[in-house]
Amino acid sequence: MITEYLAFLRALNVGRRRVSMPALLALFAQAGMTELRTALASGNVRFCSEESDPTRLEKHLETHLRAALGYEVETFIRTPAEVRQCLANLPWDEATLEPGETVLVVFLKQPPDVERAARLAQHQSPVDELRLLGREIYWRARAGVSGSRVRWPALTRDLGGPTTTRGATALRKIELQTDWS
Questions:
Q1: pLDDT surpassing 50 at residue 180
Q2: How high does pLDDT run on average in the chain?
Q3: Which domain holds residue 98?
Q4: pLDDT level of residue 94 (50, 70, 90 thresholds)
Q5: What angle do CA 140, 102, 169 make, to 5 degrees?
């Protein structure tokens, strides 16, 4: 059975980690993925695979990308339905945000255990509201990302694994651009 997925790649096209969209699509094709398309930027790839286990698929793509590029590219896999549910789960109505506020979704590899999830509270501040639901953290940045008090290395350590972040507006565009049905 063929399954459609979206890969959110962490820290690609940042600093010296430059990969063109055509080159990235070629890497995914070499890894056995089909029906490839990038969305918004090359850190978002829509594709199909015969692999039904997203965790195995993440590991396969990470191994392939590391071998091809020479550096780690953490990969976060979601199905179209999971992305739609993620958008439906947004705890804040973006239309009611104050100027300068933004809503982001932080993707995790797996839900943190209870102890690690409890640590999320210590990263909250008057300008940063964080809510965990499953494998996503919903982040309301009242002072925008640049005014945030969240220290991502500490949060990542507390949660026990890597993260990657997309703005809620970008996720909506990705959902529309990839024409999922």
A1: no
A2: 92
A3: 83-177
A4: confident
A5: 115
SS3 28: helix
For residues 98-127, give the mean pLDDT: 94
3-state secondary structure of 119: helix
Residues 105 and 157 in one domain: yes
Residues 65 and 127 in one domain: no
What one-letter code names the amino acid at 139? Answer: W
Q: In what order do the strands lie in the sheet with 102-108?
A: 128-133, 136-141, 102-108, 163-167
CB neighbours (10 Å) of residue 165? 15
| Whole-number Å distance between alpha carbons of 16 and 179 | 31
Bridge-based pairing state of the strands 75-78 and 3-9: antiparallel
d(CA 72, CA 60) in angstroms, rounded, equals 12
Specify the DSSP element, H or E, that contains 77: strand 75-78
117: tokens are 């999830």
